[in-house]
Structure formats: structure tokens, C-alpha cells
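for the writeup, i need someone to sanity check this before i put it in the appendix. the sequnce is what the collaborator sent (i think, or maybe the updated version? ugh). structure was predicted straight from it, no edits. if anything looks off just tell me and ill rerun, i have time this weekend
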Amino acid sequence: MTRPGSVVRLFAGAMTVLVLGVVALATIAWLIGGAARDVPTGDGVGATSSVGASSDADGFTVWERNDDGTPVRWDPCAPIDIVVADDLAPAGWRTDLDAALELLHEHTDLELRVIDEVDETPRADRSPHQPRRYGDRWAPVLVAWASPDDDLPLRETDRGLGIPVAVGIDGDRVYVSGQVILNADRDDLEVGDADRSGSWGATVLHELIHVLGLGHVEDPQELMAVSPGDGPVELGPGDRAGLAAVGTNDGCLEVPAPRPIQIETPGTSDGTTHP
């Protein structure tokens, strides 16, 4: 169990997150989906030793499993609300987002819905509880466009990052918030889904799948391959199996009540830490 004030370290030297002010809420797990990189850098990372524990023998991996063996997932009995900050986005990208949400609903039966456009800036230390902005609830998933800088774990070569946030005690967690951060400087990519090696359609879908709880696989035929290859923007058999595993099949989940959680400035992607 993560105690108030303890340091949660992510594997692969990605970030260091200090969790403060956790009262009845026992843990917060930041799981960084370092996906859509043009140069393979290894699988996604997570905040506990169980992250990445599932092999890709079934064609998919999950960030983390609970003690009962089921993947950490979202409560399927509540909608997954999404807010969008797209001032830096290419024209027409919302078509890619809408297509991705429709496809994910088809394969998970989860309700993913865009509820607002916001001016929130993506941050590595984004709090999952922002009552002044969103009311007394877990913050919606933020889908935002940004340029790589020292305040984000986004590198120049990255297309984007998918970051789910899980809360609960070790072995019994549930996703409640998250971010998709898309690299606004990657003007070599095109809106649409003509080919996954060069399209924003593939990137948006890939990062949203990370937010739903899936990690990377080695099979280049899967959309969740660690590095995008050539080919159509479509789900492979492992992708579909993974989405079914984090979908609605296993019933409703008990979600901890929202409460203040402070996250100190994390380290950058090279493992250094800002003061």
C-alpha cells in the first residue's frame, strides 16, 4: 500500500511521482503509455510491480492486474467522460477522435463521451481531482495537444502518450482519470486513417487504448505494437481480445470517492527530476 508522502517510482526510469495528502484513498497509480514512438523504447511502465505482469501470449498486455487476476479497468457502469483541449491540433482531427471512440465502444461496450472543450493545459502532475474546474468528481480524461517541453514526459520523437490513473488499495484498483497528450509539433503526420505509420487516426486510437488499460505488444500486426508499422488502421486479434478484457463483461466496480490528491513535479523522460 502506498502511504501518504511516499514516492511512487515508475519502471524504465520514466518519472518519479510523489503522492501527498492521500487520506482514506490508499494509492494512486500513474501508468505512462509511451506509445506511438517512431523508435521502439520498450513496453509501457507503471507504478507497481504488477504492471505489465500479463504476457502477450493472448495477443495483448495490460498495465496492471488486481489480486483476483482481472485487469485494472474502468467502472463499466459509468461513462468515461472526456474533455478536449485542441487549440494546437491540426484541422479535422476531431473526425479521428470520433472514429476512435465509436470503435472502442463497439469492442468494449464502454460509454466514452466528449463532454466539453476546455482550456486546461496537460501536465505531468495533472491532478485527478480538480473540484474548481470540474466539480467534486474525478477529473475527466483530458485529450490535449501540446509541444514537448520540460513539464511533460513527451519527447520530440513521440507522437503521443496515453496516461491512465488508477486509485484504490494494492490489488484492488480502478481507473478514474487520465490523459492523452498528442505532439503538436509532429507535422509529418496526417489526419485520417490511411496508414498507421503516418496517420493521426492510428495515434489517437492507440493512446486511448492505453488509457483503457492496455500496454504494448511485440507483434507488429497489432495496433498496440510498441512501434507503429505500415498497414491499415485496424485492430488486430490481440487488440480486440484486450479490449474485451477491459470492457463491460465482468460487471460494475466500486469506485472510491473523489478527494484531493497532490502530485509533485515528476522527473522527465530521461530520469532526471526537477526541483
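The mean pLDDT is 78. The chain has one domain: 7-263.
thx in advance!!
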